[in-house]
Amino acid sequence: AAIEKGGYEHFMLKEIHEQPDTIFDCLRGRLLPQSGQIIMSGVDNHIDALKNAQRIIIVACGTSWHAGLVAEYQIEELCRIPVEVEYASEFRYRNPVINEGDVIIAISQSGETADTLVALESAKEKGAFIFGVVNAVGSSIARLSNAGAYTHAGPEIGVASTKAFTGQLAVLTMMALKIGYAKGTISEARYMQLMHELQAVPEKVKEILADTSVIQNIAAKYKDAHDFLFLGRGYNFPVALEGALKLKEISYIHAEGYPAAEMKHGPIALVDDQLPVVFVATKDSYYEKIVSNVQEIKARKGKVIAVATAADDVIPGMADDVMFVPDADEVIAPLLSTIPLQLLSYYVGLAKGLDVDKPRNLAKSVTVE
Ligand code: G6P
């Protein structure tokens, strides 16, 4: 088993550390900034259906649903197509409106999640075009889809999804870039810039993983907290949700993810000098706004743990603890800002002596409705 884990103590840690390679593998042969191309046959073969979509409905569960939320921001910005992100279990049972010209994107690591599968089956009966973003090759959802793109993250053993999530983000980013470029809703310059940004991701993830001692110390410091709040805005809002989910799954600490601006409508009532508040606060177009949100928490004596951009000197001056990530365009920032949060939950779970690879009550793939 030690060999299978490649010298790591747990599959989860191994899979977190595999991400420079799995993201690289996902981009390899597809993302070609030198020639200005992104080659994805599933997208190329159906480019008209995709770029002319009246609406894109993303259907998923769990961590895959969070990848869908990131894609919503990307597709709306880069392709100007309205996007809805649906929990498969809710979408399935409420007799959803599916019109001609709607495209469904299904996101699933396992390709076997029952809620997602049945949701897609009924959407397909209604004539929907289904594009699958799946990790497990040949899985049920991959077979049911009309077209698709694999995430190529390799087998994921840890119950909490890590490398499959970043693989999903990489595929969805390439799709948004391709569709936006084909549609003419992004300029050539922006398309090229984002291709280069995406190509730089594996190296930047490697930088984050090179030294995790700061994150281990933060985990040790906060491991006995009873609750955590995770806040982010824009592209980092789904990252906050994913950070909270990961912590719940691995450490059994209650955690809530929220859009940072929405906290004043409820969660701020929870803030006291005991509450750790994790801000995903990298340098992006929301930066000034999130700085004020950090001030609001500090004014109420909350403990602020920030994910901040390297060389930022404002947020680190305000936060109690900081985890740095390299600078990146906000469209691809989630691929980086999610990594410290994966490590934080891993190290909190480890510090609490829990079985991080097999958390209680959870299944890797939920094949019952
Ligand atoms: C389970 C797993 C999660 C996963 C979710 C959706 O809850 O524990 O890690 O995100 O199912 O799974 P899928 O395979 O469809 O992505």
TrEMBL record:
Domain of life: Bacteria
Entry keywords, A to Z: Aminotransferase, Cytoplasm, Glutamine amidotransferase, Repeat, Transferase
Biological-process GO terms, alphabetical: amino sugar biosynthetic process; carbohydrate metabolic process; fructose 6-phosphate metabolic process; protein N-linked glycosylation; UDP-N-acetylglucosamine metabolic process
GO cellular component: cytosol
Signal sequence, start to end: none
EC number(s) stated in the UniProt entry for this protein: 2.6.1.16
GO MF term (any one): glutamine-fructose-6-phosphate transaminase (isomerizing) activity
Presence of the UniProt keyword Repeat in the record: yes
Record localization: Cytoplasm
Residue ranges annotated for the SIS domain, each copy included: 46-185, 218-359
Enzyme superclass (EC): transferase
Chief site of localization: cytoplasm
Reaction it catalyzes: D-fructose 6-phosphate + L-glutamine = D-glucosamine 6-phosphate + L-glutamate
Location of the active site: K364
Function text: Catalyzes the first step in hexosamine metabolism, converting fructose-6P into glucosamine-6P using glutamine as a nitrogen source.
Record note on quaternary structure: Homodimer.
Entry protein name: Glutamine--fructose-6-phosphate aminotransferase [isomerizing]
Protein species of origin: Sediminibacterium ginsengisoli
Classification lineage: Bacteria, Pseudomonadati, Bacteroidota, Chitinophagia, Chitinophagales
